[in-house]
Amino acid sequence: MNNGKSAGAITVSGKIEKLGMTTFQYGTHLLKTADKSYALKSASINFDNYLNREVTVKGKKVAGYPIDGGPELIDVSLIKL
After folding, report:
1. Reduced to 3 states, what is the DSSP secondary structure of residue 65?
2. Which one of 16, 63, 78, 81 has the lowest number of neighbouring Cβ atoms within 10 Å?
3. pLDDT band at residue 13 using 50, 70 and 90 as cut-offs
4. Is the pTM of this model over 0.70?
């Protein structure tokens, strides 16, 4: 079970998308790269402002993810266009 602790810093670039219907139930948006997807969450960033745009996000991988066959979860602290 996820205890909320971070698993390590990560910086990744890709396109922000709405989460939509998924088999996993975490994160609010997705970051899609050429070969991988990441679930995103943030207490301070409104990802809707970056929908369908190429961005670079910095944050921490959340320990205990992925679950239910979903992607890794990133707690985002910074986003850049």
Report:
1. coil
2. 81
3. very high
4. yes
